[in-house]
Amino acid sequence: QVQLVESGGGSVQAGGSLRLSCAVSGIRFSTYWMYWVRKAPGKGLEWVSSINSGGGTTYYADSVKGRFTISQDNAEKTLHLQMNSLKPEDTAMYYCAADPRYGSDPADFSWWGQGTQVSVSS
User: Fold this and answer.
1) Interstrand relation of 111-112 and 33-39 (parallel, antiparallel or unpaired)
2) DSSP notation for the chain
3) Sign of the torsion angle spanned by Cα atoms 1, 36, 40, 109
4) How far is CA 53 from CA 62, 69, 81, 116, in A?
5) What is the Cα–Cα distance from 19 to 9, expressed in whole angstroms?
6) Cα 114 to Cα 119: distance, rounded to the nearest angstrom
7) pLDDT digit string (tens) for 7-27?
8) 80 pLDDT higher than 90
9) What distance in Å separates the CA atoms of residue 32 and residue 84, rounded to the nearest whole number?
């Protein structure tokens, strides 16, 4: 059974930091592409970041580039998202997702967690 469980969300003031984690089980973690996706109130899904199975290739949405860092720990089967210099527009439910293939459309991702809420106040 595949499970992705996010943690680390919370409420912070603008300029603050949070570190999200996603514990993964049921898949060969080291062979999957891993993703962070967010959904703000009243908006659609927004891809945030991707990391390849080897961990050597990362991609970021322009809106978070330079502020967020994606990483993974293959031994612990955990995905992370370090979020610095947070802005009110980063407020959203954050989901981790997994897929054996690379993609840019969240609708194509196979496995999803339940999400963790991030709220940034001005």
Assistant:
1) unpaired
2) --EEEEE--EEEETT--EEEEEEEESS-GGGSEEEEEEE-TTS-EEEEEEE-TTS--EEE-TTTTTTEEEEEETTTTEEEEEE-S--GGG-EEEEEEEESS--S-GGG--EE---EEEEEE-
3) negative
4) 22, 16, 16, 23
5) 7
6) 16
7) 999 999 999 999 999 999 999
8) yes
9) 26
User: CB of 120 within 8 A of CB of 31?
Assistant: no
What is the Cα gyration radius of the chain? 13
As a whole-number percent, the residues of the chain with pLDDT over 90 amount to 88
pLDDT in tens, 19-48: 999 999 999 888 899 999 999 999 999 999
- Cα separation, 51 vs 59, in Å, equals 7
Q: Give the model's confidence band at 62: pLDDT under 50 very low, under 70 low, under 90 confident, else very high.
A: very high
pLDDT tens sequence across 103-122: 889 999 999 999 999 999 99
